[in-house]
Amino acid sequence: MQSTKFQRQSSFRRGGVIPTAICLSKATISVGVLSMSVHAAEVGALYQLACLMLGGVLTVLSIRMISVASIETKKWSFEDVCEELFHPVMAIVTGFMNACVCLGSAAGYLIVCGQVFVVVFPTDDATRNLFVVSVGIFVCCPMALARHVGFTRHLAAMTVGALILLVIVVAWYMGEHRIDESVTTESFLLGPGEATFVAYMNSINNMIFAYNNQFNVPQLTRELTHEPSRDGMTKVAILSTSVTFLLYALVFLLSVLAFGVAENQKDSLILDLMPVREEIHVRISLMAVMFSVLTCFQLHIYPIQQFLAYLVRKARGCSSDDEKADVVYFGRSLTRWYDIFCALGSVCLVVLIAVVITSLRAMLDFIGAFGAAYISFMVPPMWIIALRRKDEQNFSWFNKEILWSVSFLALGLFLFVFGTYSAILPILGL
């Protein structure tokens, strides 16, 4: 009886499959959900749904590859796995790219907070910037000091509920104002017909960012309560990706119907709701969105801390297996002060980016193309190929797993090159 009660009490423990899946989904469901409808309004619901379904499948496969590499090498960060399978230079490049993705994502969260503040409390840019800086100092800095990714599992569950509230508010708006006049069956399904190659490619970039949670996979694999296993992380990947897909699909379908296609859609869903900001339930939903994006801040700061810790370890001549190197990760003695400095420095850099860049769409398109495509779709297949090449006698390029990994890598290279090109053009005004 007591053991049953204990199991029920610990069903949401740190390291369980369900809380791990919620943490992983929370790393994705936040800023991306707010700009999804902008792309759907350009390219059509069918194309966007196809991208989401394809992206979901690729994300599950990518997470499985990362967990396999982490478990077989017994390394729990992108930097350590890359060093084990390739070279420290590769580890530094990958860690830098991973840190850039997380910095951009975290900056996107603060941009959303600034947008919510402007919508709820109409004000000028100077006041908005002051609010963003204040949130960064008094909210984000303390959260960035958490030592475990699973620390936010309870907050993550609450924030998924907050985004469901946003879906309800969009549905209410459509019910009150009916379907937008610019929406026809053809424009809803296929888009208004004005989309260019860049628009279609940026829609894919947004999809990549929407599912991008791979930066936390090695650490979450390690934090699984039972022995880390590829099957356990596969269950986590399927569950988190399914939740992400359902919320994204509901939001962008309702948003396109409610706010229209093409130019009728603004930079984010928050700005779309500005005309009805006086409604109390709209204000509550917008504040819930702010709470939602802030609670996953730590999920993106943690990989940055790992990268900086790796750099210090290499400078000290340590390996990840050294006892003195473990001090770096677990924050003992002087190294704990270093971790605090890294966390606070990362937050300050994120705040600076959020104050300078206010366009959420441009930020997400570039991050999705440049960094997330590399981390999600290029690094994992390279890891699998490197792992299998260690067994030289049984290795073959015509093995099914290797052929699939090569195909996966080719897709990632395409998304990295052409996606980055498409994301840069609008930023440069071309």
TrEMBL record:
<feature type="transmembrane region" description="Helical">
    <location>
        <begin position="46"/>
        <end position="67"/>
    </location>
</feature>
<protein>
    <recommendedName>
        <fullName>Amino acid transporter transmembrane domain-containing protein</fullName>
    </recommendedName>
</protein>
<feature type="transmembrane region" description="Helical">
    <location>
        <begin position="236"/>
        <end position="262"/>
    </location>
</feature>
<dbReference type="InterPro" id="IPR013057">
    <property type="entry name" value="AA_transpt_TM"/>
</dbReference>
<feature type="transmembrane region" description="Helical">
    <location>
        <begin position="88"/>
        <end position="121"/>
    </location>
</feature>
<keyword id="KW-0812">Transmembrane</keyword>
<dbReference type="Pfam" id="PF01490">
    <property type="entry name" value="Aa_trans"/>
</dbReference>
<feature type="transmembrane region" description="Helical">
    <location>
        <begin position="127"/>
        <end position="146"/>
    </location>
</feature>
<feature type="transmembrane region" description="Helical">
    <location>
        <begin position="366"/>
        <end position="387"/>
    </location>
</feature>
<feature type="transmembrane region" description="Helical">
    <location>
        <begin position="155"/>
        <end position="175"/>
    </location>
</feature>
<keyword id="KW-0472">Membrane</keyword>
<keyword id="KW-1133">Transmembrane helix</keyword>
<feature type="transmembrane region" description="Helical">
    <location>
        <begin position="21"/>
        <end position="40"/>
    </location>
</feature>
<feature type="transmembrane region" description="Helical">
    <location>
        <begin position="282"/>
        <end position="304"/>
    </location>
</feature>
<feature type="transmembrane region" description="Helical">
    <location>
        <begin position="340"/>
        <end position="360"/>
    </location>
</feature>
<feature type="domain" description="Amino acid transporter transmembrane">
    <location>
        <begin position="15"/>
        <end position="424"/>
    </location>
</feature>
<feature type="transmembrane region" description="Helical">
    <location>
        <begin position="408"/>
        <end position="428"/>
    </location>
</feature>
